Amino acid sequence: MPVITRRTFHQATLGALAAYPLFAKPNSVVDGVQIGAQSYSFRDRPLDAAIKAMAEVGLSECELWQGHVEPKLKGPELSEWRKTVSLDTFKDVRKKFDAAGITLYAYNYSLKDSATDEEFERGFEMVKAMGVSRITASSTVTSAARYDKFAPKYKVFCGMHNHSNMKENEYNTPESFAKAMAGRSKYIMINLDIGHFTAAGFDPVDYLEKHHDRIVTLHIKDRKKNQGENVVFGEGDTAIKPVLQLLKKNKWKIPANIEYEYNGADPVAEVRRCYEYCRSALTT
Question: What angle do CA 230, 269, 19 make, to 5 degrees?
Fold first, then answer.
């Protein structure tokens, strides 16, 4: 594969930045609630195009999916890249978001138990280079101890992300979150996906009311109960409007990040549709 040097990365960065002023600086705070996006919503395109798409939709906050930064490597090669990549790469990523007027809120850095301590710690160095203080992770319950080994040192909050599958040692129930946080530092927290939580048979409104102080960010999607599919916002069983209204009522500063996962023709059009649904849920 071709070698990406610091110079070529910087040249690509400058070229990409030139496109962002086509859109006015976005502001997606609606009645005090920050609506943003998990950049995985734009997984069909590279980072520069994903940032441009967010700006086009009008979203002003992002949780960055690691797939938008990491090369398409696997196993030992990816591990080696994580341990050796220049931290200037991540500083340049931050510059791209700043140029677009989008707040980079968190970095999704998901590791399993097989990763080395060096690989875990490197993630914290990456987020500090990006100037953020939050990691989100689709990981195992037992890996919480690995994240917590470095989180207090770097003062980075780690939100553990849930799915709806009932696999052992994965986040899928309130109890799995509780187990991850038990005996850990204050830095081990929750990235609550309200769609997956609903599909697994739980109530995101009740959980948010009880545990809002431990939630780093929300993933907003709509799914049907009983392991139902991802659907267009408003067509499933997920209590999107009550969740957003709860954030508004209590002025909790928890970003509500759209994660577009249902099948649609155009991610930009669909994320815009999701955003308009959220706006309407907060203003009507």
Answer: 130
Instruction: Report domain extents, the chain.
Output: 25-283
How many contiguous H segments (helices) and E segments (strands) does the chain have?
A: 12, 11
Q: From start to end of the chain, where are the E strands?
A: 29-30, 33-38, 61-65, 103-108, 134-137, 157-161, 188-193, 215-220, 222-223, 230-231, 256-258
Which CATH number applies to 25-283: 3.20.20.150, 3.40.50.2300, 2.40.30.70, 3.90.550.10? 3.20.20.150
Burial tier of 140 (Cβ tally within 10 Å: 0-12, 13-18, 19+)? buried
Residue with tokens 């341990």: 83
Q: Under a CB-based contact definition with an 8 Å cutoff, are residues 128 and 154 in contact?
A: yes
pLDDT digits (tens, 9 = 90+) for 172-194: 999 999 999 999 999 999 999 99
- Each residue's pLDDT tens digit, 33-47: 999 999 999 999 999
The closest alpha carbon to 159, from 144, 175, 172, 146, belongs to: 144
